[in-house]
């Protein structure tokens, strides 16, 4: 069902392009930036709190991939860390502040990566971490959450049911609920990726960001708006999980009844209004891509970059594949945001 809604909406979205109202390099950034919940000084300070194992990740031009895609392609690699995703940046902030305040426990809902990151950061600080996840989440993510010492509760429904259950659990126990993308630390943590990008970017470049709840896009977008305003910031979501993208184009929260995508890390249905407001200030465009392009993107990242990635991390490459003219000859950075993938499914996807 979500697929048909999304397919119709994609046509509408494409007919509305270009969304950017000024040429790259001509944007006036200051007012828009002040209107988000984020603050550049706090983002800079976050770097002193986050364990360095998550920081200053590799950023490099990948020539073989760029040749295939028809644009200069840079990779920002967020998978070479203990939890194989960027989410550790945010959970380091959440847990360090919680521990400072004397908190002993935290609960979160997770599609799989936030739960691992909270488990890792919480364990370091002696916190009891409970993660609520969907039983449809990849087994490898659920296993790693448990292996990190977190308590895992699995719900018989999707990520949105896990969110509801996490709220109830935190209330019952009187402990901190960590809400990804709503809690400012999750956005600030992700925003530190933006600080690591700015020096490598020039006006007219594009940055492609996988869009789920929106922490990464609002965080990175905020930094780029402020420090590299000529850079185009583009969010990418699957056609099968389009709620936040539809919301961005409609400028109001749009929900869907279901999701249908292999990109489990970005498959939410209920966008958070405050996050949407921020996203509207700092993002130039939000696009939807097909499952076939995501699979091709994963295969290309394996073949031409030597990277095993989960589907959400291939969204940027998928976006280039679906609109090559838009990116032809430009410098495009794609954030490789997660590498937690079930091996059997991965092998199926990348086999031709
Ligand atoms: C691998 C991966 N990519 C992208 C996202 C989406 O990030 P955000 O929820 O910050 O939009 C997630 C979210 O957990 C993720 O795990």
The description of the largest β-sheet is:
6 strands, mixed
Query: What's the β-strand tally?
Result: 10
Overall geometry: globular
Query: What average pLDDT do the residues reach?
Result: 92
Low-confidence stretches: 1-9, 14-33
CATH class group of the largest domain:
Alpha Beta
Helix share, percent: 40-55%
At CATH level 3, the topology of the largest domain is Rossmann fold
Q: Determine the N-to-C terminus distance.
A: 28 Å
| Tally of contiguous helical segments | 16
* Quaternary structure classification: single chain
Work out the count of structural domains: 2
For the CA atoms, what is the radius of gyration? Answer: 19 Å
Q: H/E order of the elements?
A: HHHEHEHEHEHEHEHEHEHHEHHHEH
Domain Tryptophan synthase beta chain-like PALP: 55-338
Cofactor: pyridoxal 5'-phosphate
Keywords: Lyase, Pyridoxal phosphate
InterPro entries: Ser/Thr_Dehydratase, TrpB-like_PALP, TrpB-like_PALP_sf
Strand-helix topology:
Elements: H1 2-16, H2 30-34, H3 40-46, E1 59-61, H4 63-69, E2 72-77, H5 87-100, E3 105-110, H6 113-124, E4 128-134, H7 139-147, E5 151-155, H8 159-173, E6 176-178, H9 184-197, E7 206-210, H10 215-227, E8 232-238, H11 243-250, H12 273-282, E9 285-289, H13 291-305, H14 315-322, H15 324-327, E10 331-336, H16 343-350
Parallel strand pairs: 2-10, 3-4, 3-6, 4-5, 7-8, 7-10, 8-9
Antiparallel strand pairs: 1-2
Helix pairs in contact: 3-9, 5-6, 5-9, 6-7, 9-10, 10-12, 13-14
The site of pyridoxal-5'-phosphate (PLP) has 23 residues, from helix 6 and helix 10.
Cofactor: pyridoxal 5'-phosphate
Protein name: Threonine dehydratase
Keywords: Lyase, Pyridoxal phosphate
């Amino acid at each position: 069902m979500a697929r048909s809604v999304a397919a119709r909406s994609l046509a509408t979205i494409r007919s509305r392009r270009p969304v950017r109202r000024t040429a790259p390099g001509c944007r006036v950034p200051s007012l828009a930036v002040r209107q988000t919940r984020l603050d550049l000084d706090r983002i800079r300070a976050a770097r002193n709190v986050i364990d360095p194992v998550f920081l200053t990740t590799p950023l490099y031009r990948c020539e073989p991939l760029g040749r295939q895609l028809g644009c200069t392609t840079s990779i920002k690699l967020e998978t070479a860390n203990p939890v194989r995703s960027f989410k550790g940046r945010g959970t380091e902030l959440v847990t360090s502040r919680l521990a400072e305040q004397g908190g002993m426990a935290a609960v979160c809902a997770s599609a799989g990566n936030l739960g691992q990151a909270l488990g890792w950061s919480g364990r370091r600080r002696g916190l009891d971490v409970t993660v609520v996840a969907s039983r449809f989440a990849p087994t490898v993510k659920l296993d790693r959450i448990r292996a990190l010492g977190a308590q895992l509760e699995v719900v018989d429904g999707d990520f949105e049911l896990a969110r509801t259950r996490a709220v109830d659990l935190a209330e019952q126990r009187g402990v901190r609920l960590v809400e990804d993308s709503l809690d400012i630390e999750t956005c600030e943590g992700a925003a530190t990726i933006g600080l690591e990008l700015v020096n490598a970017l020039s006006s007219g470049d594009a940055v492609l960001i996988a869009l789920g709840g929106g922490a990464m896009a609002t965080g990175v977008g905020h930094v780029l708006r402020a420090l590299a305003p000529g850079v185009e910031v583009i969010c990418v979501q699957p056609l099968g999980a389009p709620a936040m993208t539809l919301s961005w184009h409609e400028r109001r929260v749009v929900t869907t009844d279901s999701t249908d995508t292999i990109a489990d890390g970005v498959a939410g249905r209920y966008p958070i209004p405050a996050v949407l407001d921020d996203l509207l200030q700092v993002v130039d465009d939000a696009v939807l891509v097909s499952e076939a392009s995501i699979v091709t993107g994963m295969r290309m990242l394996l073949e031409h970059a030597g990277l095993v990635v989960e589907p959400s991390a291939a969204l940027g490459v998928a976006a280039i594949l679906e609109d090559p003219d838009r990116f032809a000859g430009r410098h495009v950075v794609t954030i490789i945001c997660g590498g937690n993938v079930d091996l059997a499914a991965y092998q199926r996807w990348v086999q031709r």
